[in-house]
UniProtKB/TrEMBL annotation:
The lineage of its organism: Bacteria, Pseudomonadati, Pseudomonadota, Alphaproteobacteria, Rhodobacterales. Keywords: Bacterial flagellum biogenesis, Cell projection, Cilium, Flagellum, Repressor, RNA-binding. GO terms for molecular function: mRNA 5'-UTR binding. This is Flagellar protein FlbT. Signal peptide: none annotated. GO terms for biological process: bacterial-type flagellum organization; mRNA catabolic process; negative regulation of bacterial-type flagellum assembly. It comes from the Bacteria. InterPro entries: Flagellum_FlbT (IPR009967).
Length: 134
């Protein structure tokens, strides 16, 4: 994950390789230069009770890799088939691009980038689910 830059707001927390780091009173910027560091903004974390939809479940599984609660190979074997299933439902070009980014990142052990691409699908999933309930 070489070259990742995090911009943190006041008192924002981030998990880096299992350690929770809290920013001070002012905005700051951190450069993560260690390759393959596991990084998770705690404001982006999905609580297990919130992982009730297909995309959120994928995000939660990717998140478990970043927190050190899942082995990358085990999680990868769970995530890849679910991304394939989503690719049959989310067929618009932008969703396909995000699913491809998530897959490529996952295969390249870039778990933060995988999570980031998957999280971008949540608003679409929300719209589709809301339309299905009308």
């Amino acid at each position: 994950m070489s070259g990742l830059v995090l911009k943190l707001g006041p008192r924002e927390r981030v998990l880096i390789n299992g350690a929770v780091i809290e920013n001070g009173d002012k905005r700051s910027r951190l450069s993560i230069v260690t390759p393959n560091a596991n990084v998770l903004r705690l404001r982006d974390a999905i609580h297990p009770d919130e992982a009730r939809t297909p995309v959120r479940r994928l995000c939660y599984t990717a998140q478990l890799i970043l927190t050190g609660d899942a082995e990358p190979d085990d999680a990868r074997s769970q995530i890849l088939p679910r991304i394939e299933e989503l690719s049959h439902i989310l067929i618009d070009p932008d969703s396909r691009r995000l699913l491809t980014q998530a897959t490529d990142a996952l295969l390249g052990d870039q778990f933060y980038q995988c999570l980031k691409a998957l999280r971008a699908l949540i608003p679409r999933e929300d719209r589709l689910l809301a339309a299905g309930h009308k």
